[in-house]
TrEMBL record, chains A, B:
Family membership noted in the UniProt record: Belongs to the class-II aminoacyl-tRNA synthetase family.
InterPro entries from the UniProt entry: aa-tRNA-synt_IIb, aa-tRNA-synth_II, aa-tRNA-synth_II/BPL/LPL, Anticodon-bd, Anticodon-bd_dom_sf, Gly-tRNA_synthase/POLG2, GlyRS-like_core, tRNA-synt_gly
Disordered as annotated region, ranges: 688-714
Domain of life: Eukaryota
Signal peptide as annotated in the record: none
Pfam families: HGTP_anticodon (PF03129), tRNA-synt_2b (PF00587)
SUPFAM superfamilies per UniProt: Class II aaRS ABD-related (SSF52954), Class II aaRS and biotin synthetases (SSF55681)
Protein name: glycine--tRNA ligase
Organism: Chloropicon roscoffensis
Length: 714, 714
């Protein structure tokens, strides 16, 4: 990433501008030729220049693409093969299972088998630690079954839809935009006349913006058919993605499974504000299942019908979005892909310090910048390659109905760049919707830094005179006076000042009461105001746990290259971080002998006592093969009990990625491994602390590069 | 529990027997009087004796009840007041929130607010440690959305129902059995003629057995009306408790939200068996949401429509239910309430060693006994009072449609004895149902201890002769021979032995082929069989996490009595175990001064770094009041930073239940508290290790007894 991208980008932009200008020249000349005001030779000369400029632009664009580099260089064939190999491992090793497989399965539903489940639990528990504990958030667990009024208020009943088309023969359903997208991309893969190509590219760019009608027009124009069958398809129509159900036995209370966990926080806002001592800002968090009845789910566990979300709603005074801990993340460098970069000529993200991005106005405020930083450190801790992760700002039309700004944390995997976390500014949208629908206050009191002084009209009924005169009607009169408009109050004051008395009826309606001057004080006064009620803004980092998990699996999976290994001997490795690894440590007896086994069993017990998931491999194969087997399932540490152990109570501790080994006392082992797993120490530190041990593996192996697509499992 | 219950019980049983005999005498005499074979005087004498015997039985029963004692002595008024006080704390302190409260709430749906959510997460994570990690279980996470065929096979579509009645005017729905139960209990509360009383008691005892028809008869007989309105009610009819939905956009795939997590394990059995190397026994575990559309949920979070289950399915060879780790739990003592004790005269559980219960045949096998022991240690670790917990065996008619034996872990709370964990022997029911419905193998291979030798009839077609003769029909002939019944094979053999040839048609049907002796070998042979395929039995410990949590809250909540405190000064305490406490430690600066605050902030950071949820209380109130405040929310440890801290870097560490204090170095504090929370050390050990500190609280306080109902919060 050392190339000066800004310089290269500027060259592209300059070339684009020159070419655009010449394009305008050509159009003008065409008109002039028609009007007899220019010669055909002049026009031809201009067209030749335009061609040259465009070729130049293409060269510059390619140079830029190469300078940026990244995983996109890998061919789609390699990606497909890599994914297939990984998929095979994930299914055969029970990381994932197709739900209800014995009944033929259900599209979009996946189960996590033992290692997948353990990884997921580890990611979730680190999420709670990194966010809920360290940021002192208020965690809640709300119902997934949600009554209709809540989701009507939030806009989901009306707007949480995708456009669907049906195969006119089989009735099979498809997402309209996906069909059109596939068709257009297929067309672009063939040679096309320039105008046609630009037209298609334009539709593709606007795909998310298209309403039912234009989507229908485009589908008809490009003659989309049902995939596989090739049958005619229906016009597109909206399909609500929520699973509907009925709550209670009467059958008259409609409900849905929540499509996001966020609403469970918003509806509890008044209680949570109260719990927080009525103070802003504060963040609430929730981790749980959400449900979306996708039209035709594909892409493995990246688009599923039931998934785990981890959402944070940070409630904040919209006028004070500074963050006290921003300095802690300001120096983090990451790829930012702003709206400007996306719509500009050069569609590439930029590696930046968060502090600089904020200073340059690329990020709007400290709070959103701080969360981007925290998401970045979370993602790298669970094993996402920082070079294949970027934060991309949503284009205007991309944003959900509730958002006013949004940065997605996208991770590159074999499917392309996948949104794993969305960091949205939902403004006050949700709280206002719920306040209006529920008729409950959803506001917080904000104290001004210093009190403000405002002038206001005070109307003060003097009860002793009113009571004396009106007796049982006193209340009516008092209330009428108190609820007068400012205009009427001033009118009454003028009348009383002039006449000493006035008929209340003329100013308030209602009964005909004669008011005298002594009965009411009407005056302009300056009042001290120390704060105000506001509807808080909301910054929402929202995680799709399954997506984070899957992308991490892709980034951690590789083939270990041994210098002179044959193709069939190549060994696959998951380089899980110790934090997320499903099994933390494997224990081997060097030989199948009871004295070794006894030591191993005792060691396993003490490792498990320390909360470490532990395996014991007592098979008689070579240590090298047993190491390879633990590498394959991503166990970060292995302990071998050998002859020396029986003498001096030490054993060999081996680290998976470096394959280096140290010698550690048996009683120290659980503590050392626990500290490694909890990131309280590093392998380098352990290597300094304990004597190193000659490698039994022959030192021929070396780690592969992160997610290198040229490496494939057999 | 020191009384000789067996002796007292025997006395009751003897008295019961004598009274029963006399009852028979009276009935016989009545018939005899009618037939003129006995005098009325004889009958009256017999009746008088019966009355005396019954009075004697009553006295003995009461004596027994008093000997057993327990929480049931507390009056229902106290229970109600205790519950109301606790409920107020739980709602006001945000442990629980009525879901969607701003929209009026939904019956049977509760959210967990921050402290409730933290406790729940702690219970769940200890469950995973105690069971999944320490017992090496295979954890899975399966879909909640479930297609209909799965739940048809499991029997839930047909049988997972409750009987419902409707208010004929308002349409309001009620559980038929609950209405009848309430009505009968109300009747019993009044004076009743003996026969009538026994009749009602009999219906109450059989309540769970009643089908729609008899339930209807009884409801009519006892004139049950709709509660509150007093309206007429409909006949009872079954209502399925599953939430129904539709999967996918076509609307033709019916689905349900799972009513239990267990099915997600059963359908994955073949994959899990494979993951476990095809070996039995093994256990799979799942923790997740289940959904039941209860007819009219009451009892707070004890009966809700969405709840967290933690289920274990232990797959085992039904002929080998021994457990290698049983010895580890054999000495645990707990209250066991067997079926015999429940149907006997004296309906009381017995305090027993698990080892003894197994030896006496009260528990059927080691596996079920081992799990009862593990459940017991789990429950006490999370804060359930062992004296208010019992294991009750289901009566025959109580068991779910899938169970053949079941022991409930019941916990006493203000609602009575609540089932929190069920330990059911589901036998092979579920696997067999799914095998039949899915047509997939759901069996495991069991190797015999030593091979068995069995005689079988072998039919071996000799292909070279068959091929030569029949050419293209060879396959048909071979197949016909192979699939013959044993009887036909013996017939064919006899024919071939006698004639040297035979028509295949006579023995197999199909084409008319002439078989000669050389074409087939038919012989009895002894075969060595090393094992067999079986459908495993399943032992299922199933936890309702919300119920465990609620009962724990009741057991942990009490009013701390200070010797001379006024009523309004009484302080409530949650005596949460450090393991489940939502906040582990509070940090106080002795005075509101920046030098104290700075030390506190640094200490908080290092406590949080150690994974401990930490609060800081910087208010200027007295230390005593601040301690009381942390006691009220159940924080087990408090650290006070004072003048000495600034000199020697030590601070006071105070334990909530004993209110005793020690002096610990700041750098040791995070480790000490972490070890206390993870149960790696005890407060007694900490007191031995560190110097004690004079109590700033004056030592006037003492802990209340567990869940004592006489103690109430203001």
């Amino acid at each position: 990433m050392g190339v000066d991208l800004d310089q290269v980008e500027k060259e592209v932009l300059d070339a684009q501008e020159v070419a655009d200008d010449q394009g305008n020249n050509v159009r003008a000349l065409k008109a002039a030729v028609k009007a007899g005001e220019a010669t055909k030779a002049q026009l031809n000369e201009a067209i030749a220049l335009l061609k040259k400029l465009k070729a130049d632009l293409d060269v510059k664009r390619k140079a830029f693409d190469e300078a940026v580099g990244g995983g996109s260089k890998a061919s789609s064939v390699n990606k497909e093969a890599f994914r297939q190999a990984l998929q095979n491992v994930l299914l055969s090793r029970c990381f994932l299972i197709n739900s209800f497989a014995i009944y033929g399965g259900v599209a979009g539903l996946f189960d996590y088998g033992p290692p997948g489940c353990a990884i997921k639990a580890n990611i979730q528990s680190y999420w709670k630690r990194h966010f809920v504990l360290e940021e002192n958030m208020l965690e809640v667990e709300a119902s997934a079954v949600t009554p209709e009024p809540v989701l009507k208020a939030s806009g989901h009943v009306e707007r949480f839809t995708d456009f669907m088309v049906k195969d006119k023969v089989t009735g099979e359903c498809h997402r309209a935009d996906h069909l059109l997208e596939d068709k257009l991309k297929a067309l672009l893969a063939n040679p096309l006349e320039g105008g046609k190509r630009r037209e298609i590219e334009d539709v593709l760019a606007r795909l998310d913006e298209l309403g039912a009608e234009e989507l229908g027009t485009q589908i008809a124009k490009y003659e989309c058919k049902a995939p596989e069958t090739g049958n005619e398809i229906s016009d597109p129509y909206p399909f609500n993605l929520m699973f509907a159900t009925s709550i209670g036995p009467r059958g008259d209370t409609k409900g849905y499974l929540r499509p996001e966990t966020a609403q469970g926080i918003f509806v509890n806002f008044p209680r949570l504000l109260n719990y927080n001592g009525m103070k802003l800002p504060f963040a609430a968090a929730q981790l749980g299942q959400s449900f979306r009845n996708e039209i035709s789910p594909k892409q493995g566990i990246l688009r599923v019908r039931e998934f785990t979300q981890a959402e944070i709603e940070h409630f904040v005074d919209p006028d004070h979005k500074d963050h006290p801990k921003f300095a802690k993340v300001a120096d983090l460098e990451m790829l930012l892909f702003s709206r400007e970069k996306q719509v500009g000529a050069v569609k590439k993200p930029v590696l930046m310090r968060l502090g600089d991005a904020l200073a340059q106005g690329i990020l709007e405020n400290e709070t959103i910048a701080y969360f981007i930083g925290r998401v970045f450190t979370f993602m790298t801790a669970v094993g996402i390659d920082p070079n294949r992760m970027r934060f991309r700002q949503h284009l205007q039309h991309e944003m959900a109905h509730y958002a006013c700004d949004c940065w997605d944390c996208e991770v590159e995997c074999s499917y392309g760049w996948m949104e794993c976390v969305g960091i949205a500014d939902r403004s006050a949208f949700d709280l206002k919707c719920h306040a209006e629908a529920s008729k409950k206050e959803m506001t917080a009191w904000i104290a001004y830094d210093k009190p403000k002084f405002v002038e206001e009209l005070v109307v003060e009924p003097i009860s002793k005179f009113i009571g004396k005169t009106f007796k049982k009607d006193a209340k009516t009169v008092t209330s009428a006076l108190k609820t007068m408009t400012e205009e009427n109050a001033l009118g009454l004051k003028a009348a009383l000042d002039a006449e000493g008395e006035a008929s209340l009826k003329a100013f308030c309606g209602g009964g005909d009461f004669k008011i005298t001057k002594e009965m009411v004080r009407i005056e302009r006064e300056t009042k001290k105001v120390s704060g105000k009620f506001i509807t808080p803004g909301v910054i929402e980092p929202s995680f799709g746990i399954g997506r984070v998990l899957y992308c991490m699996l892709e980034h951690c999976y590789y083939v270990r290259q041994e210098e002179d290994a044959k193709e069939e001997d190549k060994k696959t490795v998951f380089r899980f971080t110790p934090l997320v690894a499903p099994t933390k440590v494997t224990v081997f007896p060097l030989l199948q002998r009871e004295e070794f086994n006894a030591v191993c069993r005792k060691l396993c017990d003490s490792l498990i006592d320390s909360g470490l998931s532990t395996l014991m491999d007592v098979t008689g194969t070579t240590i090298g093969k047993r190491y390879a087997r633990t590498d394959e399932i991503g166990v970060p540490f292995a302990v071998t009990v050998d002859h020396d152990t029986l003498q001096d109570n030490t054993a060999t501790l081996r680290e998976r990625d470096t394959t280096s080994q140290v010698r550690v006392g048996l009683e120290d082992l659980p503590g050392v491994v626990r500290d490694l797993v909890n990131m309280r120490t590093t392998w380098e530190e352990v290597q300094r602390r304990f004597p190193s041990q000659g490698g039994a593996e022959g030192g021929k192996e070396k780690g592969g590069a992160a997610g290198d697509y040229s490496l494939r499992c057999p």
